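User: What would this chain look like folded?
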Amino acid sequence: MITDNDVEKAIDFLRDSARDAAQSKANRIYLDEFRKSLKSMIMKEHAGLSIGAQEREAYSDPRYLEHLEAIKIAVERDEHNRFLRVAAEAKIEAWRSFSANHRAIKI
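Assistant: Here's the prediction, encoded as structure tokens.
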């Protein structure tokens, strides 16, 4: 059974974690978008090559591979925050349903 205290903690968590959740989402989106710029900058360093060769060089560049690792970490953090928030919301929703059912039985 979900207690009022559990719901209060869930609401507090949603409120208190909002900034961190927003920051992790912003980081994820930024890193994903910057990936395109990084690829372009690396390709520009190999301007004398064909487009295909420039892409090959960009995709195999250590800076690009390091950036992919950063994206992986950002996605993990963002999804972790999202899953915790969804769980808190589900707890609140379950409590609401239980409370409504309990009130209906009393009437």
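The mean pLDDT is 95. If you want, I can go into more detail on any region.
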